[in-house]
Amino acid sequence: MFCNILSKLQKVLNKPVMVVGGITIFGALLRLYHLGFKPLWLDEAVLYWISNSNNMQNVIANNASSNSAPPLFAILINFILKIGDSETVLRSLSWMGGVAAIPAIYFLSKQFFDNIPAYFSTLLVAIALTQIEYSQQLREYSLTFLIATIILTFFYKQVRHPTWYDLALMTVAMVIGIFLQYGLALLIIALDMVCVIVFLCDKENRRLLLLRWGISQFIVLCAVIAVYFLSLRQQMTVGFGATSKIVYLSDAYWNGSIRSLLNFAISNMRNILDFTFSGELFIFVVVIGLIFILRDRNNYIALLMFAFPTILTFVLACARLYPYQGARQDIFLTPMIYLLCGFGFYYLLKIVQLRWIIFLILLFIIMFGSKPTIDYLNNTGAENIRPVVATLSNDYEVGDKIYVYYSAKPAFTYYYKDNIDYQIYGTNNRGNPNAYYQEIDNLLSSNNRIWMVFSHCFANECELIPKYISENHKIDLITRSTGTWLYLVH
Q1: pLDDT per residue as tens digits for the range 323-369
Q2: How far apart are CA 116 and CA 13, in angstroms?
Q3: Mean per-residue pLDDT over the chain, rounded
Q4: Radius of gyration over alpha carbons of the chain, in Å?
Q5: In 38-55, which positions are buried (b, 16+ CB within 10 angstroms) versus exposed (e)?
Q6: What H or E segment, with its residue span, contains residue 317?
Q7: Is the separation of the CB atoms in 105 and 122 below 8 Å?
Q8: How many angstroms separate the CA atoms of 90 and 364, rounded?
Q9: SS3 of 244, please?
Q10: Would you say 302 and 191 are in contact if contact means Cβ atoms under 8 Å apart?
C-alpha cells in the first residue's frame, strides 16, 4: 500500500501543471484571505489620492510630487478606480501580481534544476510573509517581484540560447520595470554587467549577442529617459531617499565609518535574507546553494545574476544613493535568493543519502516560515484608523473641529468623508515641534471642542503635541488602535 502511495505521488510530481497549479491556487487563496481586512495605511492612501483623478496628466504629476516611484503603478490604479474604490478592489492589482509571481518563480527555477527543487522554490514564494504582505498592499512591490523574475528568466534564456523572441520579451519586461520601480533599473544595470562577462567568454556569438543586446538596451534607455522627465527629476528635487527624514531607512545606508563597513555588509545581507523568508533553516539552505554554485562552473551565470545586483545595491548604499536593507525597496533582489534556496535543496538531494532528512528540513522551513504569514493575515494592520472614524461618526457634534495630523490625512480622508468643512489638516513640520505648537495655539483660540486624529507619527510627535495641549487645556484620549489615536480637547 505504501509503495502504491509513493508511486501515485511520483506520477503527480512528474506533472508540473498539476503541482505548480496546485501551489498557485493555494498561494492565491492565501493572498485573497483578508485582502480588504486591513485598512489603508499612509503609503496606500497616498497612492489612492495620487491615482484618483480623471486627468492622466494629473496622475503623473501627482505621482512625481508625492511618491517615490515611477508612474506606472499609479496609472494602473487609476484604471482600477473605474471599477471601484474599496480596499479589496484597490489591492486586486497587487493580488494578481503576487499570484502570477508563483508560477513565474517556477519557470525561472526550471532553467537551472529539476522539478522537485523548483517546486520547493515555488512553494516558498507561495507562503512567504513578504510575498503575502505586498500582494495585499496598494503598492507596486508584488508587481516588482514578478517583473524582476520575468526579467531574470528571459535574460538567462537570452544569454544561453539567444532568440529574437526571448529578447523581445525580456526587453518588454525591462521597459515595464523601468516605469514600475527604481530598483529594477539597478537589476537591469547589473544584468548589463553580467552580459559583458558572458560576451567576453563567448567567442563564437559575440557579434550577434552584442547586436541583440545593443538593440534591447537602447529601447530600455529610452524608457529611462522618459521616466527621468516624468518623475525622477522632480522626486530628486523634493528629497526622497537618503536625504529625506525617513526613519526606517536610517540603517539602509553606510554611515561612512570604515570600521562599520563589514558589519553593514553582513548584517544588512542577513536582513535581506530574513526579509525574503523567515527562519534560520532557510538561510542555511541558501548558503548551501551559494557554496555549491561557487564550486560549479556550469552555473557561473546564476552566481553572477545573484552577486552583481546585490553588490551594485551595496555600493550604491555606501554612496547613499539607494537603500541596502531587508525592506521593500530591495525586493528585486529576492527572486535569486529563492533560486539559491532551490539550488541548496537540489544539491542536498544529491549528496545526502537519507532523503527523509532533506524533507524534514523542508518541513521545518515551511512550518517556521508560515507562522509569520499566518500572524500577518490575522492582524488588523500597522495603522488601523477605522475605530477612530467609527467614534467620530457617532460622537461628532455640530460645531466641533477636527484636527488631523499631516500624515494621518490621506487615510483619514479616505474613510471619513463627513463634516469636511470642519476638518483642519496639520502641516508637515516633521522634526519641528514648535511649529506644531504654534499651529495648535491658533486652533485652540476658538471655543469649539476639538477632535485630534493622529497616525503614522514621526518620532514622538504624537506624544509631544497632546502633552503640550494638556498644560493649559483638558484633553482626553477617546480611542486608540494600532498606530492611531483620537483625542478630544474640551
Answers
A1: 999 999 999 999 999 999 999 999 888 887 667 777 788 888 888 88
A2: 8
A3: 91
A4: 25
A5: bbbbbbbbbbbebbbbee
A6: helix 300-318
A7: yes
A8: 35
A9: coil
A10: no
Closest CA to 181 of 304, 327, 8: 327
Query: Is 103 in contact with 24 (CB distance < 8 Å)?
Result: yes
The answer to whether 234 touches 65, Cβ cutoff 8 Å, is: yes
Q: How does strand 423-425 pair with strand 401-404?
A: parallel
Q: Which three cell numbers stand for residue 170?
A: 525580456
Is the torsion defined by CA of 250, 255, 260, 264 positive or negative?
positive
Quick one: angle between helices 42-51 and 72-80, nearest 10?
A: 70
Q: Position 251: which residue type?
A: D
Residue type, 388: V
- Packed helices 182-201 and 300-318: angle between N→C axes, nearest 10 degrees: 130
Query: What Cα–Cα distance (Å) separates residue 465 from each residue in 62, 112, 164, 479, 489?
Result: 30, 57, 61, 16, 12
Quick check: 479 and 486 in contact, CB under 8 A? yes
Give residue-wise pLDDT tens across range 62-110.
Answer: 999 999 999 999 999 999 999 999 999 999 999 999 999 999 999 999 9
What stretches of 81-181 show up as alpha helix (H) in DSSP? 87-109, 115-127, 129-135, 141-160, 164-180
pLDDT digits (tens, 9 = 90+) for 275-287: 999 989 999 999 9
Terminal CA-CA length for the chain:
76
Residue 240: pLDDT band (50, 70, 90) is: low
Spatial neighbors of 367 by CB under 8 A, at least 6 apart, are none
Q: Please give the single-letter amino acid code of residue 232.
A: L
Q: Around Cβ 233, how many Cβ atoms within 10 Å?
A: 11
Query: Three cell numbers at 209?
Result: 549577442
What residue ranges do the domains of the chain occupy?
11-378, 386-489
Q: Map grid coordinates 474613510 to a residue.
A: 415
Among 328, 391, 337, which residue's Cα sits nearest to residue 144?
328
Cβ burial 441-459 (10 Å sphere, 16+ → b, else e): eebbeeeeebbbbbbbbbe
CB neighbours of 453 closer than 8 A, spacing ≥ 6? 385, 388, 392, 402, 403, 404, 405, 408, 412, 484, 485, 486
Q: How many whole angstroms separate alpha carbon 165 and alpha carbon 418?
A: 54
Specify whether the CB–CB gap between 391 and 382 falls below 8 A. no
